[in-house]
Amino acid sequence: MADVSQKTRLVLQDVAKSFTNHLRGGIHLPVVSGVEFSLAAGEVVVLGGPSGVGKSSILRMIVGNYGIERGRILMRGEDDGEFIDIAAATPRETLALRCNVIGYVSQFLRAIPRVSTLDVVAEPLLARGVATLDARRRAGELLERLNLPAALYDLPPATFSGGEKQRVNIARGFLTDHPILLLDEPTASLDAANRDVVCDLIDAKRDTGVAILGIFHDEEVRGRIATRIVDVSGFSARKAA
Amino acid sequence: MTDLPLLTAHALTRHYGNHVGCEDVSFDLYPGEILAIVGESGSGKTTLLNCLSCRMPASSGAVSYRMRDGEMRDLATLTEAERRFLMRTDWGFVHQNPADGLRMRVSAGANIGERMMAVGERHYGRIRGTAEDWLGRVEIPGARIDDRPTAFSGGMRQRLQIARNLVTAPRLVFMDEPTGGLDVSVQARLLDLLRGLVGEMGLSAIVVTHDLAVARLLSHRIMVMKGGHVIESGLTDRVLDDPQHAYTQLLVASILEV
C-alpha cells in the first residue's frame, strides 16, 4: 500500500459509487469515482467542494451505510493493527467496526420514541460495556458542556429545536473514544458559543490521537480545526455542478 | 463477537402444492443478533418463520440450531420431546394476535408462571414473585396479576405475551408482526420495551414485519422477501438507505413521511 505509515487509520483506494433508480426506468446516477485519500491519527481532514459533489456520500460509504461498486475502504483502530475493508465486511463485522473503531455524527439525529436524551447519548457507551450509571453521568457532563439545559435530559429529543437535536447528536458521537471519527456538518445549526465548544471538543479529540474526517461549510470553523483539506470535486461525477 | 452461529438455515423451501411458500432460503443467525424479515403480505415471510421455528415442516432444506450444550443439531432429527422442550424453554414465539400466544382463561400471573413451571420451577412464592417482577418490566401494574388477559387492552395483552415468552430467558425469540394491529402510541411503547429487553438479555430474534420503521428500530440485519424468495439482504441501515433491488427501492420509497 502506498503512503501508509504507522499512524494511518483510514485508506480509500479507487472508490466508486453510483445509484441506480429502478423506479425511474433504471436511471443511473454516478456519484463519485476514483476516490483516493488517507487519514492518520491526530489529523483533522476536511472534505472540501461545493454542495452535491458527494461529500456526505463519501462519509456514508466509510461508515458502511452505503455500499460501493469498486475500490477498498481500509481502516484500523491502532498503530500496526490489521486493516479491515469495511466495503467487503459482513453486517456483523461492520457493526463491530462501528462499535469499536469508527464513530459517526450524522447530519440529523434520528430520534427514537420514548428514549430520553440522556439514554440516547449514553447508548454507544453502554454498547461498549460501560456501566449504566457511569455512562449516564458522562453523558450528562458532555451535554452540560454543550449548554443543553438539564431540564431536557429526561425528555426524548423528538420535539427539540434543530440546534438542540444537533447538540444531542454531537454528544452521542463524542462521548466514546473511537479512534476514527466522522463528522457531517456538526456545527451547521449552532450559535457561535456552541460552535466554539464543538471546535474545542474536536481539538481535544485530535490531541488524544483520534483521526477525524469531517464536512464543515463554515470557513471560520474550517480554518480553526482543519489540518488538511481534501477537495472532493475531482472525484465527483458532477464536475460541472 | 462469537463466531459460531446460533441457527443456520440451508436452502429452506416450503411448497403448498404447486404454490411456492418460500424457496431456497439460507442464512446464519448469530447470538445477540436481531434479523428482520420484511416484505408485503403473501411474500412468504410468515411461512419462513413457521418453518424456522418447527411450527411447519419444510418441503426441503434444513434448519440447524446450537443447543445449550454447544452441539449443532438438525431440527428435523430432534425427537418430539426434545423439540417441545426447546419450544417451551429455549425459544419464545410472539404472535401478532396475543390471544394466540396467551391462555385467555387464566390469570396474567398464571400465564407467566406456566412457562416457569415448564422449566421445572415449583415454588409458588418464587413463581408469583417472578411473575410480578415481569409484569413490572413490561409496564403492567402488579395489582393486575390476578386478572385474566380478557380484561386487558390490546397493548397490555401484547406486553403480557412478551413477558410470558421472556421469563424463561430464552436464547431465541421468533416474532410475527409483534406491533401489528396496535395504535402508534402503544406501538412505540412496545418497541421501546422490546428494544430494551432484547439488548439487556442479549437475545437473538427473528422478527417478521411489514413495517420498515420497526425493522430499522429493532434489527441489525434485514432480509427482503418477494414471491417466496429473499431478493435482498444485509445490514439494516444499508438496505434501507441504499436499496439495490427494484422491489426494495419501491418499499422504501413507499414510506409516508410525517
Automatic annotation (TrEMBL), chain A:
The keyword Lyase applies. The keyword Nucleotide-binding applies. Keywords: ATP-binding, Lyase, Nucleotide-binding. Pfam families: ABC_tran (PF00005). InterPro entries: AAA+_ATPase, ABC_transporter-like_ATP-bd, ABC_transporter-like_CS, CP_lyase_PhnL, P-loop_NTPase. Residues 10-240 form the ABC transporter domain. GO terms for molecular function: lyase activity. Coiled coil: none annotated. PROSITE patterns: ABC_TRANSPORTER_1, ABC_TRANSPORTER_2. It comes from the Bacteria. Transmembrane segments: none annotated. SUPFAM superfamilies: P-loop containing nucleoside triphosphate hydrolases. Belongs to the ABC transporter superfamily. This is Phosphonate C-P lyase system protein PhnL. It comes from Jiella mangrovi. The gene is phnL.
From TrEMBL, chain B:
Belongs to the ABC transporter superfamily. Keywords: ATP-binding, Lyase, Nucleotide-binding. Residues 7-252 form the ABC transporter domain. GO terms for molecular function: lyase activity. Signal peptide: none annotated. It comes from the Bacteria. This is Phosphonate C-P lyase system protein PhnK. It comes from Jiella mangrovi. Pfam families: ABC_tran (PF00005). The keyword Ligase does not apply. PROSITE patterns: ABC_TRANSPORTER_1, ABC_TRANSPORTER_2. PANTHER family: PHOSPHONATES UTILIZATION ATP-BINDING PROTEIN PHNK-RELATED. InterPro entries: AAA+_ATPase, ABC_transporter-like_ATP-bd, ABC_transporter-like_CS, P-loop_NTPase, PhnK.
